[in-house]
Amino acid sequence: MSPRRDSNPHGDDPRWRAVVSRDPQASAAFLYAVTTTGVYCRPSCGARTPRPEHVEFFQTTVEAERAGYRPCKRCKPEGPPLAELQAANVAAMCRTLEHAEHPIALADLARGVGLSAFHAHRLFKAATGTTPRAYAQACRAQRLHGGLREASTVTEAVYAAGYGSQSRFYAEATRLLGTSPSEYRKGGPSREIHASIHPCDLGLVLVAVTSAGVCAVLLGDDPDALREELSQRFPRARILSSAPADRQLVRAVLDLVEHPQKAADLPLDIQGTAFQHRVWNALREIPPGTTRTYAEVAAALGSPRGARAVAAACAANPIAVVIPCHRVVGVGGRLAGYRWGLQRKETLLERESSATPRGRSRPR
Q1: Are 15 and 32 in contact (CB under 8 A)?
Q2: The domain that contains 319 carries what CATH number?
Q3: Which of 2, 235, 309, 318 is the 20 to 30 A CA-CA neighbour of 51?
Q4: Are residues 113 and 177 in the same domain?
């Protein structure tokens, strides 16, 4: 009797395991082709897994096509990587929302990038940490803040910001502005901020809280300098001493400063441009004990040339540690650009590294 032929010629080849698991991380490393269909695919292709004896591996599309295979119509391996396409789609949706003069329905937003409403919503939230609707609201709010100062009337500013009706605007005006629109135009008082300063291993930490959540976490050594920084950030606010109702939230922030590797799910009240919010959401997705370069964060947001803009957004971050801009580093892991001092940045990263089993990973 002839010996039984091994039905899996690839054995423990990691490429075959990537095909079986449809590993998206392997799509940039190799391609596989199926001899019975004459088609080559990405490892992440959703097509039915072929029999291993019918599979060949290639490094490039050129090699696969020279061998007589044609590209799969499902995963389109001859085109850009899926992650790059998704990032480009999210970036395009963000640009549409940022420049929209009127509210955009999700179906119309998705149609603009060739996706279903369900897929567009899921992809957008996974990439930005927020929904298209919430992102559009942030864009409108940003335009509104500037428009109320410049427009001749409140009505003019409301429609210029992209609100479809005044009733929709007035329903959320106080939440957006912290005061009435007319008072805001006059430069009147904004919301109250309760602030307190506490000693910690990093020196001093100022925690500022509004009724909506944490609005600032500042690090330093001089209490007067910290108070002045808070006043400059919120020139129209009434800054008061921390209230008893804020104690639990303040304790959570202080615990996170001492143990930055812990998960942070704290209510935040943070104002910024739409792009800044995208960067800050991306920073919160970086796992403790790991780092990313400014260029990597920019690429993940669909702006591969936006490293400087990402660095500027990190520098504008008013909530230290909770929004972990300390996890963003320069090329080659160089520590740079931390507005509260490089020594504090290094200390935070060392604490996370020592508390994370895998240790600190350097940028890829």
Answers
A1: yes
A2: 1.10.10.10
A3: 2
A4: yes
